[in-house]
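As a representative case, we now present a protein record of this kind.
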Amino acid sequence: MNQVIKTADLKAAGVPAYVIDLKCRPGGPWQRILPGVVLLSANPPTRAQRLQAALAYAGPRAVVTGVDALNAHGLDALPPPPRIHLLQPATTRRSCPDNVLLERTTRPPGVVHHSGLRVAEPTRATLDAARHEPNPLRQHHLLATAVRSGLCTVTTLTRELDAGSKRGTAIPRRTLHLLSALLR
């Protein structure tokens, strides 16, 4: 059973707002994870529930990207970052809670469905994760791991890097150049 639900959906199902507020009080059986999103449990949310909540908050066209998307694709060698990284259409104006990174894009990625989540295809997810990794060694490890796992190639990563935003791409470009030389 999906325990993550929008408050609008609860209200549409006939649950009055005051009942939602009562159940979401400290010590209550429910909790608010994000604005307008409720977890129907008092237990701390799992990573999967946090991902579902972030997508519910961001809207139906949002897509999980970065390390969480790579983990959904089977690359579980990377620890999840503190913030859930989502892509949303450039026309969407949504505020960003502290534990969610909402990035607007004019180039929506290819979408794959994993366990009920909309996730970016591996090449885009890898580059989104790399662009937001401040540590060059971890960034190099991330790119090399994605290539070694077979999720993407240096060529597809370079093509995607050339097609997208140039912001935050200097180190990934150097790393891909180095990986290309090592794989020859």
Q: What stands out?
A: Residues 153 and 181 are 13 Å apart (CA to CA). The chain has a mean pLDDT of 92. The beta strands are 4-6, 31-34, 37-39, 63-64, 84-89, 100-105, 111-114, 117-120. The chain is about 45% helix and 15% strand.
